User: Fold these one by one.
Assistant:
Number 1:
Amino acid sequence: MAIPLGYNLRSLLVRRAGTALSVLSIGLSVAVLVLVLALARGFQLTLKTTGDAHNIVVLRNGATSEGESGMQRDRFRALRAMPGIAIGEDGAPLASAEVYAALSLDREGGGSANFPLRGVMLESFRIRDSAQIAVGRAFEPGTHEVVVGKALLGRIAGCRLGGALELQGQGWPVVGVIDSGGGAYDSEIWCDVEVFMQELDRPVYGLAVLRRGDPVPDDPDPTDAKDDAFRLTIEGDARFDAETHTEPGYFESQSGLLGDILMIVAYFIAGIMAVGAAFGTAVTLLASLARRTREVGTLLALGFRPWAILVGFLFESLILGLLGGVLGVAIAWPVNGVATGTMNWETFTEQAFAFRITADVVLQAVVFSTAVGVIAGLVPAWRASRLPPSVALRG
């Protein structure tokens, strides 16, 4: 005997008020899930899409981030002279020594936060071709000039072309704006590395960035140096005491902690709301069942088996879950692409990014809402399938 799915669909349409209430309660919990997942996805994508696989980040062995790393000047000179590094148009190796630090700066409108400052050589602009000067010009070496990521414009006091940032007790003129296409460099401030080291009273560089001259190996794991002779040569040289990462691999590793925590928070909050939504949906279906006992009895009298009644009622709750998922995504959709920012817990600096409602976020939302709907329908469906025909027909 077939399952009375047509009857169950018509029942949802006939009982529009209960259907709408159930869909709305599930949809609100799904909307919260989508919002936090979109926050996590935006943060992860901003870091994962930063950089070029031809660029190699060289850190001190054991350092988990740029801020923890250190490199002596003589080590950088030896590293810069290694074979395998790309050569620029001027005949010089494409290698840059850098210093990365988090400094507390005043926000526009009040308050303060840690923002990333990167001291670089001019070679960094040629190595990191994804970070281009969109407006203005690069800083003049030996001066206190800075260039700022476009995501910082209007977020830090004085952060505008022609303005000045208050750093280390003095004004640093803003002469250019970096556009890295939505990458992590859009949230950074760049200045001359030697000037920055003097201001911070640091005798050594923090790290080096190299543009490799040989082809990028076909390595599915960008954080793994195996099968990469160039990186293995650097890591195996005792002079450097270094570990290496591809540029995209390094930034991807920096997205892990906060991204994972946001995912956990998303499901925790949505799960709490889903309990209420599932309970409300179950109560609505049970109330509906109380008014439909004759209908269920008629189906049983017509020869539909109890398991068919069970599946039919579960089908109703599944449809409610699906509709709730679609509604939840629709409620959250306007935030897609909206700029925001949060602290990166790996570097303890402010990271700007945008909410991203991607296909996997939508899929997770729909699966979540469907599960909530089915769980909510288990008890009503079981009770409906256990009604004796004779009792059901008497109402």
Number 2:
Amino acid sequence: MSEKPWDGRFAEKTDCRVEKFTSSIDIDRRLYAYDIEGSIAHCRMLGSAGIITPEEAATLIQGLGTIKREIERGQFEFDDGLEDIHMHIEARLLQVAGKVAQKLHTARSRNDQVALDVRMYLKAQTHAVIKGLVGLEKVIVALARKHLGLVMPGYTHLQRAQPVLLSHHLMAYYEMFTRDVERFRECLKRIDVMPLGTAALAGTTYPIDREQTAELLGFAKVSTNSIDSVADRDFIIEFLGAAAICMMHFSRLGEELILWSSSEFAFVDLPDAFATGSSIMPQKKNPDVPELVRGKTGRVVGDLVAMLTIMKSLPLAYDRDMQEDKQPMMDAVDTLQACIEVVTGMLPCLKFNSDTMRAAASKGFLNATDLADYLVMKGVPFREAHGSVGQAVSYALDHGKELQELTLEELKKISGVIDEDIFDLLTVETMIDRRKSAGGTATANVKAAIDAAEEGFARREE
């Protein structure tokens, strides 16, 4: 069993079962680069403040660099007895740099140290998530422009409702992921706070310069309350909340691709490279990628619930329960980034079956609302018009026709104000392009939305 930094207080060695139970090294070893970067900044600050000599700071920084290279080359030995990445690095530094390594922990605690590492990790990962989502948005917008003329049925209650442009439907996902980007950017404001120097919970007696440490590490601000600094995991919960919402959007997209690629819909063909087959049924082409995206949403929602449950009822300041914060955080990061990557790769390869989609948009009385609106323009009160069109639909069903297939004489039996001009209004193109209200599916609206999105991308890249 390895020596512990607290061995002076205890008469017995830690039971090996306790060492295994309390160890987090299998998870937090991923934080090594942030731990070392934070320690180097801490050393520089200690040297500048005169708490350690410049020579001691240089020796510690050199030793930390050596350890980082060892880890990256796979030459570093990990031991459950040392619990976490912080103790591993400190123990190895003693071997590499000698007794001066014992000064590394001056003016800090593992409590503020781990809070720093987690914030640095999540800050970097949040930037990566935002970059990935913007890339996905670009793919969606490009897909919308490519298929600007394609029509499809829009749905409510999974029943055909009114015809819309496929591009309009795709741009709805652009809006969703835009909100996700905004949420993650807001998260960054709460993540980008430097906690180091608050020590265990009460601050330190040493004349440290926390602003200098924050500047060295690229943090926007310094935490203002030492107790909250080590007890706070709101920033993780906020990230997980944003991640859960984002995954919900991925799940909805995945569900639609599953439905659309089925024989019953046949709106889209998934690329072979993003589908799998059956071990027993040779004809099968399964939408495994969208299904797994849909399934993995549950993991990220679970990560959010786990983190909320970990933190609920915890007294201030630090409690060992908080060691469990990293697994849900890292799982959500990994899962979300994997979904962003695979969906971004899959979407450009989709093949839409325009004839099937158009046929679906032309059947099922999707022009009923337009017929009602026509009656209203002729002076019929909307509720009366609604009832009359309902009768027309019932009549058409009985005679195996669509509304546009009824004769003028048949339509006049429903309402005498109907004239020849009705038939021009019941075509799919007319129904779509007449919906010019802001945010509507009219081609001009959708093209303007695509233009605006592309202009936004260009401005951000300038």
Number 3:
Amino acid sequence: MDFLGYQERNPQGYMMADAINALDDEGLPRSVITAICVGRRAGKTTTVFAIILGRMLSRPNYMVGFTAQTQVKARERFMRDVYDRVTRRWDITDESCPVKMGVAMGQTYLVVKATGSRLTIMPPTSDAARGDAYSLFVIDEAQQFTEDHGQALLGGILPTFSTLKGQAQLIMMGTPAEAQSGLLWSQLEKGRAGTGGIVEYGANPFTPDHEEGESIEGTTSDPDVWVESHPGIGNLTTLRDVRVYGFEGMSLADFKREFLCLWPAGSASRFINPTDWDACKVGGDLPELPAHWALGFAIHPEGKFSSIVAAWRDDKGLAHLSVLDSRDGVRWVGTSLSAIYKKHRKTIVYDSASSGANVEIEGLNRTLRPRVSPQSWPNVSTAASLVTKLIRTHALRHHDHPALNEAVASATKRGTRDSNRWAFGRIDYGSDITALEAGAMALRFLDETPERQPLPRIA
């Protein structure tokens, strides 16, 4: 840091340095590959360049390769973070300058005169590193590399480490990409599983977005969340700048990725926080249904699973979901719904876009003509948002039914191209979220439908 003229230190810089410099019992780097995912303006590139130059100044013939999504981008980072700062302190044409640098396009490098150590700006290709023995290789903006491109790049880099007796390292750094995939995501997943080194700062993955009319507290729009998530606020940037240039100057999706280090929810993302769901669990026997409750059912798009769920609110206003029936397939649905309707005479709530549900309602209409309430896409979306919020605020109660537990564990977000609305989707298309879908629709219907006297029971 002193060599580059930086006067201040920051805690996140020490954390990154500690992770990169950590040694095992044999005195070798603990992690051959270290992935760093930290928000913009938090100092990750500055810290890594300081580590690079510190090693080059103290270690003879220490060879470093540096690349990014393009060689041009890598050169830009070098010029801004190294060349500009070095030339402020020394005249590089003078013999007193401790380094010599080349800045020609395609031939950008820095050499420490006293040690012979060299930093070379490299193209992001698998062939670029072959034939050399690098002590350290750095991949900046690693989120820009697809899994295939990234693995091909690693295939060219890692073999060059084989002659360095366990001393070589690779560092990759960046911010979240537009999907949970690619080189950086893959390495972070390995680190989360305990098989690699990572430094990861960011908001809780289950942090909700602010909804109109609701409090911003605890959401991605809450400055307190920004401060907790972004280690650079207060030392390398200010809360005002994050608000003006980040939150107000970017789309929410970009702000969440660049400053809160939140990866977009993907098809493999669990959407509901399991800790919140556990907090909503109540023990004991299933309670009797109250006088005022709503009845919902849902069917998997391919008819693999179906669920019938009751929803109500207790005297304290807490929402309750109770599974009345949940099984594989659909053949049983008509019989079960018919029996429940005859006993309780409750309006049957279902997704109007579900072909399987429409078939069952058509069958019931031929015999019972039950009171029904088909739910439109806005209804289904509102229902999902309602239940998610209630779980997050621990204002919902469930009775540990396996079907609901599986549904919550398997649920993610799905939306449409022409709408900002979203509803529950499946992490795996073969998973069962029908209990959650049925319960959410029933609860939304209950909240928007005044209590009414039930019709006489059907004998």
